[in-house]
Amino acid sequence: MSSSQPIDLRLPTPGCYADPIKAGIDADAVFDGMTEHLFFTLGKLATSASLRDLYMALSYAVRDRLMTRYLASQEAIRAKPHKTVAYFSAEFLIGPQLNNNLLNLGIQEEAEEAVKRFGIESLNDILEVEEEPGLGNGGLGRLAACYMESLASLQVPAIGYGIRYEFGIFNQIIRDGWQIEVTDKWLKGGWPWELPQPDESCFVGFGGRTENYIDDQGNYRSRWIPSEHAIGVPHDIPILGYRVNNCDRLRLWRADATESFDFYAFNIGDYYGAVEEKVASETISKVLYPNDGTDEGRRLRLKQQHFFVSCSLQDMIRSLETRNIPVEQFSENWTVQLNDTHPAIAVAELMRLLIDNHHFEWDQAWDITNRSVAYTNHTLLPEALEKWDLNLFKSLLPRHLELIYEINKRFLQQVRLRYPGNDLILRKLSIIDEEGSKAVRMAHLATIGAHNVNGVAALHSDLIKRQLMPEFADLWPEKFTNVTNGVTPRRWVALSNPELASLLDQEIGSNWITNMDLLTQLEEKENDSNFLDVFGATKLLGKRKLAGYIHRQTGILVDPSTLFDVQVKRIHQYKRQHLNALQIIAQYLRIKNGTAHSIAPRTVIFGGKAAPGYLMAKLMIRFINGIAEVVNADPDMDGKLRVVFLPDYNVKLGEQVYSATDLSEQISTAGKEASGTGNMKFAMNGALTIGTLDGANVEIRDRVGKENFFLFGKTESEIMKLRKNGYDPKQYIEKSPELSEAIRLIELGHFSNGDNELFRPLLNSLTGYDPFFVMADFDDYLLAQDRVSKAWQNHKEWNRMALLNTARSGFFSSDRSIREYCSSIWKVNPLEVEITCNIN
Q: Which residues are the signal sequence here (predicted)?
């Protein structure tokens, strides 16, 4: 590990930036900090402070204690230039910040004592007030957040770059069984964790035209003359590492207008025109993932992507210039990781900045770009691999399209040399899709421009090379690698499951939180009945908490002693929530028919959001709620079966769900899920998995042991064979009495108040073409659920299996993932930050 010289953060006069009042971490100092912020920042007296006031005061007090580390980390880079990770992502689902920062500072107990002095019963009362920034849609954004936390904990210098969406992912309300989207106003009342940096704003252009000219040295040049501009204003969020001085940052860009108010337009009565530019510019960072079902929606998405990428690259180049580092050394000081295709425009934008602004020749600019950029692919679904209509792209980014044409021309010449006369290969690999309406393939741009392309699970990375990009992999086999995803144990065990974390501390010491390999010591306890009972008791505590939450939110009473069978994730057909729903109907029918002799009493819990424009996914939510209405109202189901749909699933709710789960449903069609991270969080918290050989399920099963995993379903190769031979779902329905009866009940309107047309589109999909092979896997899934029921009967054996899932889950820490990125892709070393003044 390399280290810098200690950073001496001192004022011109003797003293330290870390004022003892603002840096102390004992309960007295935290209390004093809260009192000070209540009075001076919030204008409140302690006697009249609300819970939200106390939350804000505690958050500001905690932020004060981050600042010395935050500034010292930045100063360490200035004092000793060091390669820094720039993680580009359209999403950062960072979750609540207060408790995470308390944990990483090591002052949870001190904060608990401080808030009690204000007459608050528990710190949890304060934590409940916190609004969650909905800056992501699901796994992609949560992965980025886990990676940022691990980067800081591993003392790796890093900046996460993204967009500060004014309105994040929508809040979900369930009304009459349907999803209703409500605006996520996460910024209302202020958010104490960000530091606006308006002096470091950037200009970004759109539209307009390009022109050629001869510069002063007689060189032929091009320049872009945009027709509109926006200003990107950075907002920094400190990302503290666990019990270290290193504090990285998340830099999110807010869009402002270059001119906010047109006095002339206002004075002649054109009141909308007076603010038109402001409205148009600020729309860029208004909402996460605007609906791309319209031309304007697609245009806005592309503007968003270019906006945050351009701001970020300009910021990185400016950072070099302020430190007197030549731009030629960009790749020695920065490594850019593209989190999926959303930031893929970075390849063309970096080339533009180097060639047009800094007058590099093509080959040198391309060499810098290629050595700087790496690309993570997160999907095999064709619809998720972004393509932009050529006319839209040209109208918005004309100079970038010129550069892409040149990149493509030079690349295709390489392909011709490798495959002479093979026009089919040229068409398949070209950045420009010539089929139908011409489009720019962003995944191709990222793959060609990056020095490394990685998948996010062993199976996924293999499928990228075999199915998604076989020609690229043949051309550059050394470019394609795998880094299996991971999740941070700080949030997903220490914070979300304090009872389990306390047990682990007692049994193997507290170092497991940064060295998850230590969990393997738990295997020695697999036959210790007393320990297994204590381990099971931690799960029961989590289930009781979740049962209370379910009752408060939905009015449904659930029994914590039942098997908590959970599927929480984005609602999508390939994730197959409808397969789970169908097996619930089968279990319901068994109970009604008197054949449910060995079914384990279950509480089946769903959670997740459907994209507003994804009508089939929204119908799946209505389907699940329709089943829940019938099951939960039937007295025959009492003590045997309950169904719950948790509204507005997010990180905050996930912290309660993962610790309370007995059975994790990971049932996507084999070959469709890139990796998954929910499956890892469940395993860490001692849930058993029922799943297909898809994504990281394969690696989870290999590590926890096939005997501790409920496997079912056709493999990826079997699915491919079925598709090739002409798959007919009706054949599987006819051979399965239980499946046939379940479908008949749906057709009769049993779960839709007698409306036999409500679920017709869903049934037509399943019984007609069944794109995700639900019917093909149903019977095997039901048999696997029977094995679950049998295993549940022996609670000691279930606890043993659950313990082994926790004990063998260390590989799935995001710390391991980040170490792999650092060594094999980024070539980055840690930079330990030392501080000379006493901040403790």
A: none
- Kind of pairing, strands 831-832 and 709-711? unpaired
Give the tens place of pLDDT for each residue, 483-540.
999 999 999 999 999 999 999 999 999 999 999 999 999 999 999 999 999 999 999 9
Rounded-to-integer distance, Cα 62 and Cα 36, Å = 12
Tokens of 360: 């590099």
Q: CA separation (Å) from 517 to 512, 708, 775?
A: 7, 19, 40
Instruction: Specify the long-range contacts of residues 11-17, CB closer than 8 Å, at least 24 apart.
Output: 16/68, 16/837, 16/838, 16/839, 17/67, 17/68, 17/71, 17/837
Instruction: Identify the active-site residue in 63, 83, 303, 378.
Output: 378
Tell me the sheet residues that pair with 565.
604, 663
Q: Which two tokens stand for residue 765?
A: 């999909």
Catalytic residue (choose from 460, 681, 703, 800): 681
In the residue annotation, 570 being an active-site residue is answered as yes
Q: Is 677 a catalytic residue?
A: yes
How far apart CA 104 and CA 123 sit, in angstroms, is 16
CATH class in words for 81-95+132-484+823-832: alpha beta
The answer to whether 9 and 75 have CB atoms below 8 angstroms apart is yes
**Domain 507-715+773-809 sits in CATH 3.40.50.620:** no
Task: Give yes or no: 37 in active site.
Answer: no
Active site residue 342: no
The catalytic position among 142, 465, 569, 618 is 569
Active site residue 539: no
Q: Are 481 and 376 within 8 A, CB to CB? A: no
Judge contact between 780 and 113, C-beta under 8 A.
Answer: no
Domain boundaries for CATH 3.40.50.2000 within the chain: 81-95+132-484+823-832, 507-715+773-809
For 420-452, what is each residue's pLDDT tens digit? 999 999 999 999 998 888 999 999 999 999 999
Q: Which two tokens mark 144?
A: 């980025």
Contact 730, 763 (CB under 8 A): no
Please choose, from the candidates 498, 486, 557, the residue with its C-alpha nearest in 3D space to the C-alpha of residue 124: 498
Question: How does pLDDT run across 650-708, given as a tens digit for each residue?
Answer: 999 999 999 999 999 999 999 999 999 999 999 999 999 999 999 999 999 999 999 99
Residue with tokens 């008197």: 594
Report DSSP state, residue 836: S
| 569 given a catalytic annotation | yes
